[in-house]
């Protein structure tokens, strides 16, 4: 069984407050044979022996009895070495004069052997394994027979005891010392805790310092269920390292727990160590204790909307639809409570309908609307105000309402959006005729869109006259119709296009607009791979054609619904799949991350903040929220909260991505996918699956951050994949990288090592996107 080796700093480098960028550390002395086995020198048979703990010395000892033809025996060491280790020194004591040496088996199964070292009897000696600059007089075999040095990671380390004049020999291993260019020498500080549950009283107190220890005390009542265990879980990117202690009914016990800090731990991390009670294999109670590094920021703190300085993250709200606490949108009536919750998630934009006439019919904003605007400003939101467009309203009447509304709200509204999905709302298609994507049979543009464009152009000109500081956006149709809207001629005062890039039943990097659908849409609205960046590129091409490079994109709706699937919607060929709350969270995070890489996108708003219609389980429209109908948070709420804080002030610069190279991203064969979906069910549009990893480097207000996620569909079927990513010029961050699961918020150390001037990261990538912060 493999385990991460525990490290404690040697006294020569453990001065408090010292953060070493190079040095050595001692593995927890070899007091356990768990990582050791015995090799009798099989190619020269006859030796016997063992690798076991010497009861007198309490240290692992290799004991060998040689037969006539025996030449050597060995202790085989199978550790998982921390990345970046350059040298290992085995401190040993032989029971007689002998010659010893080291052999390693590398990742390609090739063997490398050092020269022999003569050791004096009963005297401390050293066997040195130099992984950086070692000499290998003997090497053979393996899948890379020309390799001159071992390929990491090592599979085995053999400490060889060569046969001398005596028929027996013993070699005691007192310690294994590691040398690396980065070792933390700063202390850690833990938090004491105490809790009682299920008849158990549990407390913990830390001994702080460079080698922190947790003293656990457990008192169990006689009624405690047999088989109860206390579990201590140290956060790890690959798999949490869990130690379990049996809790015996009616007894008290004390335990000392040493956290498995690799190379002295990461001074920039705070480890959230789970302390839980388990019964019948399930966690039934508990919490966590924090072990904070000397240089660690407060990883648990999340920014509010007012504290977020720059962000494209937003969500839709429906305060306007809840003048009273009744009806399908009743939950939205308590706008102060909901605004507080959304503010605590760090959301920067909110979007709501604003009726351009008061209840008495006069132009302007109702007092309730103005009160909500003041509250939104207090919370730090940027408000996108939708001005509804109705086909049965004359242009003059419409503009009269616009004038009144903008005059009343211009001090508190950041963006005015003219209309919302006119192909669905406002009666434009029934009144003027046409299709959802505005394509007529002869590929001309539908009358409804051309008529709506007149209203939008006139409104944009008027809004600019009244509120020149406000941003003005329009369109609000599907992508293909928006392209036609742009081609119809838009106001010179229009700042951007509103699109609703719902992925429907696809992962967030894909959309159903592009080359395979040009026959359906009649315009270029994407590319051959049906990806979001291709859609953005099609917009930019249209902006270029119009000589309007100043135009931006506002994705004012996208989302994933978590309704209960019952089959009826499939028979109706409903466009939105039913997702788990976990998949919803991961997909929303992935969509925001990809939009961070698209400078043309000015704002991205998830639809919506709260489940509507009382959260009816079988209704797709009732389950898009970040919050459930009772205002409890879904996983997606925390994903957005994590993104808003970690990517505050995010700035994408293509030159940063040029510092990245994905060196390895293996994927087991069973996990590879050829096709994603047969969109029409007839084989005409087969969407290819994306089996790749996405990696982007961003500048943020919190420093340089790397985002990594899988392009595959969300699935819990297979184990995570492991990837190796090179970051050019960041070798100085080795041992100082902290990873964050962007859905759960879990923080962990990211294995990293210098390679020349570059940094090599080893990542375990699963369903949830990850962020890596460099210090």
**Strand order across the largest sheet:** 24-25-26-27-28-29-30-31
Mean of residue pLDDT?
92
Classify the fold: give the CATH topology of the largest domain: TIM Barrel
CATH architecture of the largest domain: Alpha-Beta Barrel
Structural class of the secondary structure composition?
Answer: alpha+beta
Main β sheet profile:
8 strands, parallel, barrel
β-strand amount: 25-35%
Helix content: 10-25%
User: Per the principal axes of the C-alpha atoms, what is the gross shape?
Assistant: elongated
The top-level CATH class of the largest domain is Alpha Beta
Count of beta strands: 43
Query: What is the CATH homology-level superfamily of the largest domain?
Result: Glycosidases
Backbone CA Rg: 32 Å
Question: How large is the count of helical segments?
Answer: 12
* Count of discrete structural domains: 4
Give the N-terminus to C-terminus distance in angstroms. Answer: 33 Å
Textual characterization of the structure:
With 775 residues, the chain is an alpha+beta fold. The protein folds into four domains: 23-180, Jelly Rolls (Sandwich); 188-293, Sandwich (Immunoglobulin-like), CATH 2.60.40; 313-649, TIM Barrel; 654-774. The protein has twelve helices and 43 strands. The protein has an eight-stranded parallel β-barrel with strand order 24-25-26-27-28-29-30-31, surrounded by four helices. Strands 1, 2, 4, 5, 7, 11 and 14 form a seven-stranded antiparallel β-sheet that branches. Strands 3, 6, 8, 9, 10, 12 and 13 form a seven-stranded antiparallel β-sheet that branches. 44% of the residues are buried. GO terms for molecular function: hydrolase activity, hydrolyzing O-glycosyl compounds.
């Amino acid at each position: 069984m493999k385990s991460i080796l525990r490290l404690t700093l040697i006294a020569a480098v453990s001065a408090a407050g010292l953060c070493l960028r190079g040095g050595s550390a001692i593995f927890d002395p070899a007091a356990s044979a768990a990582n050791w086995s015995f090799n009798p020198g099989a190619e020269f048979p006859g030796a016997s022996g063992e690798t076991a703990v010497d009861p007198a010395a309490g240290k692992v000892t290799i004991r060998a009895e040689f037969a006539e033809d025996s030449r050597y025996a060995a202790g085989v060491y199978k550790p998982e070495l921390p990345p970046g280790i350059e040298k290992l020194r085995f401190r040993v004591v032989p029971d007689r004069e002998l010659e010893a040496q080291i052999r390693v088996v590398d990742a390609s199964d090739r063997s490398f052997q050092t020269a022999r070292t003569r050791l004096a009897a009963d005297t401390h000696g050293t066997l040195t394994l130099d992984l950086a600059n070692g000499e290998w007089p003997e090497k053979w075999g393996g899948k890379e027979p020309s390799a001159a040095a071992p390929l990491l990671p090592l599979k085995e380390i053999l400490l060889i005891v060569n046969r001398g004049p005596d028929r027996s020999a013993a070699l005691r291993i007192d310690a294994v010392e590691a040398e690396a260019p980065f070792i933390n020498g700063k202390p850690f500080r833990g938090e004491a805790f105490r809790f009682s549950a299920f008849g158990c009283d549990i407390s913990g107190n830390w001994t702080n310092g460079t080698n922190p220890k947790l003293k656990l005390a457990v008192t169990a009542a006689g009624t405690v269920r047999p088989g109860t265990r206390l579990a201590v879980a140290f956060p790890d990117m690959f798999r949490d390292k869990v130690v379990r202690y049996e809790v015996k009914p009616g007894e008290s016990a004390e335990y000392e727990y040493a956290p498995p800090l690799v190379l002295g731990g990461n001074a920039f991390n705070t480890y959230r160590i789970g302390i839980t009670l388990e019964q019948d294999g399930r966690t039934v109670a508990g919490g966590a204790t924090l072990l904070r590094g000397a240089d660690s920021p407060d990883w648990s703190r999340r920014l509010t909307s007012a504290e977020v300085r720059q962000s494209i993250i937003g969500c839709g709200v429906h305060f306007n639809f809840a003048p009273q606490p009744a009806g399908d949108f009743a939950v939205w009536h308590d706008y102060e409570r909901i605004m507080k919750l959304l503010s605590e998630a760090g959301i920067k934009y909110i979007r709501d309908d604003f009726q351009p006439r008061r209840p008495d019919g006069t132009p302007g904003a109702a007092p309730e609307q103005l009160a909500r605007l003041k509250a939104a400003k207090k919370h730090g939101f940027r408000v996108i105000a939708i001005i509804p467009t109705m086909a049965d309203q004359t242009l003059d009447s419409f503009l009269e309402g616009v004038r009144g509304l903008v005059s009343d709200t211009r001090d508190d509204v950041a963006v005015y959006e003219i209309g919302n999905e006119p192909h669905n709302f406002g009666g434009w298609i029934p009144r003027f005729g046409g299709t959802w994507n505005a394509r007529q049979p002869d590929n001309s543009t539908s009358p409804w869109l051309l008529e709506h464009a007149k209203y939008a152009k006139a409104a944009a000109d008027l809004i600019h006259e009244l509120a020149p500081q406000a941003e003005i956006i329009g369109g609000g149709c599907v992508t293909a119709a928006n392209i036609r809207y742009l081609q119809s001629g838009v106001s010179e005062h229009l700042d951007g296009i509103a699109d609703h890039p719902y992925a429907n039943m696809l992962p967030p990097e894909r959309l159903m607009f592009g080359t395979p659908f040009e026959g359906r849409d009649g315009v270029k609205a994407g590319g051959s791979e049906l990806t979001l960046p291709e859609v953005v590129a099609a917009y930019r091409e249209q902006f270029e054609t119009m000589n309007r490079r100043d135009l931006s994109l506002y994705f004012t709706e996208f989302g994933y619904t978590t309704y209960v699937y019952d089959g009826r919607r499939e028979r109706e060929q409903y466009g939105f799949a039913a997702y788990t709350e976990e998949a919803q969270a991961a997909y929303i995070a992935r969509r925001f991350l990809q939009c961070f890489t698209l400078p043309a996108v000015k704002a991205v708003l998830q639809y919506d903040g709260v489940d509507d219609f009382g959260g009816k389980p079988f209704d797709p429209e009732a389950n898009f929220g970040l919050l459930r109908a009772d205002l409890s948070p879904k996983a997606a709420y925390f994903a957005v909260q994590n993104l808003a804080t970690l990517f505050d002030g995010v700035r994408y610069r293509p030159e940063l991505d040029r510092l990245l190279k994905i060196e390895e991203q293996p994927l087991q064969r069973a996990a590879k996918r050829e096709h994603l979906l047969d969109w029409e069910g007839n084989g005409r549009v087969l969407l290819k699956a994306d089996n790749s990893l996405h990696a982007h480097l961003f500048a943020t207000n919190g420093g340089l951050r790397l985002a990594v996620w899988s392009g595959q569909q969300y699935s819990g079927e297979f184990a995570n994949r492991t990837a190796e990513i090179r970051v050019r010029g960041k070798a100085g961050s080795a041992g100082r990288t902290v990873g964050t699961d962007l859905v759960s918020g879990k923080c962990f150390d990211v294995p990293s090592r210098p390679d020349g001037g570059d940094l090599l990261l080893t990542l375990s990538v699963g369903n949830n996107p990850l962020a890596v912060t460099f210090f």
